[in-house]
Structure formats: C-alpha cells, structure tokens
Amino acid sequence: MPELPEVETVRRGLDQSVxxxxxxxxxxxxxxxxxxxTPGMARRLEGKRLDSVGRRAKYLLLRFDSxxxxxxxxxxxxxxxVGKPGKISQEKHDHAVFSFNGAEMRFSDPRRFGLMVLxxxxxxxxxxLLAGIGPEPFSDAFSAHYLSEALAKRRGPVKxxxxxxxxxxxxxxxxACEALFRAGIHPETPCHxxxxxxxxxxxxxxxxxxxxxxxxxxxxxxxxxxxxxxxxFQHHFRVYGREKxxxxxxxxxIHAQRQAGRSTFFCPVCQPCR
Length: 274
Description:
Layout: H1 4-17, E1 23-28, H2 41-45, E2 50-56, E3 59-64, E4 68-73, E5 79-83, E6 94-100, E7 103-108, E8 115-120, H3 144-152, H4 158-162, H5 173-183, H6 198-214, E9 255-259, E10 262-266
Antiparallel strand pairs: 1-6, 2-3, 3-4, 4-8, 5-7, 6-7, 9-10
C-alpha cells in the first residue's frame, strides 16, 4: 500500500498538473469503492475550481473553491493518471474521471480498496478518516519530547509502534524497516527502551522519507506517479526485501521475520537485539 512518499509524490504531480483548473465534468463509473461515493458529489463539484492538492498522512486532499474537499485514498491498487483530454488511455477499472479545462485525471482501482468521499474543508480536522491521526513526520509537533513520552507508555516493539498512524502519520512497513536500520535499532526492541534514542529515530525517519520523495516513491506492484512513471526508491532499499542478501554496512545476511502480520527486515549485526 502506498505510504507517505508515494502519496506525497502523487500530490506534487497533481498540484502541478490540475490545480487551478476548473472541473467541467466528474464521471463516476460505479456507486462505490471501499465505501460509497458521497451522494451528489459530481453535482457539488462540477463548475468549481480545484484550488490546491494537499495531503494528510496517506490521504490526498483535493480542495475546491466551493469549500468542498475530496478525501482520496489510493488503497492497495489505486492509481491516478493525468493527461490531455482524449490522449490519456482508458482502462477497465477507471472508476472516477475528473475532466478539467486542458487536463483529465483518472482514478483507477482494480481491487477497489481505495476510497473517495467529499467533506467540507471546515470539518476536515474532525472527519472520521482524519481525526486522531498523529503528527506529520516533518512537522515541529513530531519532536523528540513528543516521541519519547509516547514510546514510554508502550511495552510493545518499536517497529509496530511506528506503523501506528495515531503515533505518526504516513509511515508504513517499508519506511519503518528502513528507518530503524539507519537508527541501528532492532525492530523488536520494546518501545520504552528507545526513549533516549528518539532524536536519531526522528532523524532516520525524516531522512528515509525525504530520500524516497526525491526518488518519486517506491514502485513495488501497482504504484506509479501521476505522470505514469515508476518511483525509484526501491533501488535504494538497505534492508527491505533484501532477505539473505549482504548488509551494505557489515556484509552479513539480512534477516526477515513476521511481526504483527507484516514482513520485517533487519540486520542482526547492525541492529543488535538488546
């Protein structure tokens, strides 16, 4: 599932290609995805200008000048493609087509685990999809003091904690593994034993997310950028997906195990279990 770097890459692409355009027509090919489309969505948005494209955690926020915002989640297989009207390919699972002046945006989702709902901009903070999400990793709110206090209250493994969207927004399995490797922390280390390492954890998270954004995200299965290009950060993974391959630091084999139902990758030498 796309994580923060992939969603941020798509956001930047949309902000450059369709933001500022007037929506002439919104075509919905079915009544729902993971949840039903908001009733009257097309009627409320057609004729309105898309002011900007934002992001909160793993959600895209399409903000219109009417005060309405489309909350969009890519899900497991969702893709957004942008091109000139009549020039962009039509696909079987194109469930929503936004026709702007001079551009067309298509949302495709074969598995239909994504979602697209409408909300008032003034109600976003309290919206059920967004309320309770933790601070953005690049924000001042994600501080060493905040993280130290949060981890001190937990007894579970630190890697599982980093996947909790209530603790930190947007970090998923790939980047949690990569960040902990850079921090030299074993993924099974109990949270309360990492409170004195929060500065390096934060620095590692920000570094790996920043590099991934610069690379256009990671393309493992369905993800592509809005312009159709793949992301390239998967070529820079240090541990994720590299089981039995040599560690780039110590040359010992990378280990893999299941942790909270997810594959976890780490170097037992560079990330010793204490």
